[in-house]
Amino acid sequence: MIYDDIKALVAENNRSKEFSDEFVICLIWKETNFNSEARNSKTSATGLMQMTIGAVDMVNKNTPAGVHFEHAEMTDAAKAIQCGTYYLDIAKNRLGGVDVSFGTGKGYTKSITVCEDCLKNDSEHPMVALHKIHM
């Protein structure tokens, strides 16, 4: 997928009350470089937001009635973004933060928030901001 595709998908599917579309776009880039088919060979992390079986189960236990996801759906970009952004709010409010819940340790979100600020302030050059995430 390309940036414009992801931007439109995030705008339509971001369920987070805590995180901006730009943050979600940067997270998706950091996790998968916009590859909706991404799978981690060492864990069950799947899709744009690298949702694990446990994370999907947690979302299902903490979302409104009628909201339900299957881990097998995480390669569907829209469902992955919906589930993943619900998870971001759960992580922030119940699990000790995104740094902890994504299992990458302290400082995980620093490059994402820098990228988020860059996207918000320079929307003409989004790929420049995104490429800095991997430096």
UniProtKB/TrEMBL annotation:
Under InterPro entries, the record lists: Lysozyme-like_dom_sf, Transglycosylase_SLT_dom_1
Q: Which residues form a coiled coil?
A: none
Give the signal peptide, or none. Answer: none
One protein family per Pfam = SLT
Look up the domain of life of the source: Bacteria
Q: Which residues form the Transglycosylase SLT domain?
A: 11-97
Entry protein name: Transglycosylase SLT domain-containing protein
